[in-house]
Please model this.
Amino acid sequence: MARDRMTVLAALMDQGVVPVFSHPDPDVCIGVIQACANGGAKCVEFTNRGDFAAQVFADVTRHFAKADPSVIMGIGSIVDAPTAGLFIAYGANFVVGPMTNPEVARVCNRRMIAYSPGCATATEISQAQELGCEIVKVFPGGSVGGPEFVKAVLGPMPWTKIMPTGGVDVTEASLKPWFDAGIVACGMGSNLITKALLDAGDYAGIEARVRDTVELIKTIRGR
Model:
């Protein structure tokens, strides 16, 4: 089910952390994503990885359309327009990529779907903004300069909304510098949904870890 783009963007920024996850088993995906939603992160980025990822995504979005419509499914690792269109047809409400592709931006804008492309320089961020991208993904966050890069960009470009992925952990020591620098949200994969919790099928543990992270971000923001 398509969501209003501004509603999706507001939800992404409000929860502060976007779980990034994929798995070839739809049942595992459903368990993890429901745990994230229960923990306060209802916007989840499913990464386009491996064979039949689109079919898995379709199964998952179809499940949540009935079981928990409050879940907002996004798709990540999108590098071309045909793939973006496929996942949008399967219910993606936001699209994330490791780099900026103008054709992906056009497809998303045509359907009023939020697009967060990967950027690593001020020029790339500016180009993404010209394409209509409200939130840019700084990627890989820890390798392009970290929080200091964010501060440097926001100086001359204070209207910029940045969501780093990579180089962000669940601890206050990691999160506080990023949010103090001015990010609006962060993407987090295995640092949030750890291999140990996943291997154990510990969905309650994943829910607790997500909830703790969402609450920590609220505290850092001073809410």
